[in-house]
Amino acid sequence: MRTRLASTLLAATCLLSIAAAGTAAAQVRELRVAKQHGIGYLPLMVMEHDKLIEKHIKAAGLGDVTVKWATFAGAAPMNDALLSGNLEFGAVGTTSIPLLWARTKGTPQEVRAVCSLSSVPLFLNTRDPAVKSIADFTDRNRIALPAVKISTMALVLQMAAAKTFGPENYARLDHLTISRSHPDAMVALLSGTGEIDSHFTWPPFQYRELENPNVRTVLNSYDVTDGPATTVAMIATSRFREANPKIVTAFVAAMNEANALIGRDVRRAARIYIDMTRDPDSVDNIARMLQPEQFTTTPQKTMLFAEFLHRVGGIKEKPGSWKDMFFPEAHGLPGS
User: Fold this and answer.
1) Who contacts 267 (Cβ-Cβ below 8 Å, separation ≥6)?
2) pTM of the model
3) In the predicted model, is pLDDT for residue 10 greater than 50?
């Protein structure tokens, strides 16, 4: 009887071990990745078009994985989807990194960045002839941006206001902002009618707006951040990364390959952008908007945003360094 029981327990243990090993080897069979609108997400479009994530996952010995892509209009619903377990990777503005890190720190759903995605400049454009700088905005103006208070554009506007009006007046222009997707905001600005007369945006929308002789740029984010700064980064939860470390490594490898393609062949990258977005623009025009050095996995000046958020009370705890907000996969990079 004891021999039979021991044999049964041994068999059960072996079956459990085999099942566990199989699960560990397979990791996930479906991967959900989300992005938003704009050229800043180009590496993800290249990854989707050329199936680079699937390629690197298979090369890592993890078999076939189905990658599902989604496009969101703003950061808030994407953040919610990630925290609720409906996304594995999300592409968000830099400001979401310290906000989500501070909100989830120490929990199983702790959110950190996997890597940077792009450092493209952001332009605040206006059609109001009276507005020459942000100091000229009045209560009659309305500034469209992806998400009031939490988008990268919203925070850069606050940083600019702090420089212009004094640190205590960082929120002076907040009441003028309206949440709109970049495509909708561009249409509203160029219509010449309606309440939206200004738009804080990025490529390709900012360049198309400037083709209109009545539109001018009153603020460039590089002037606020003293040069290039990470605009968008990829985030994931600690729960997912700890369970799927090889998937995360493969994801970063796929992004590095996408960045290399952009640097090697901007015209092909432009064609991919047009193909993936059904953009009616020409390859020549899109290619002129692409600056390969702006697509990098290296974090740039992310602590600048974290320090500002801490200073104005947006987050209670300030990270000790940029590495606190990024997973170890990025720690070997010359980030900031």
Assistant:
1) 283, 287
2) 0.87
3) no
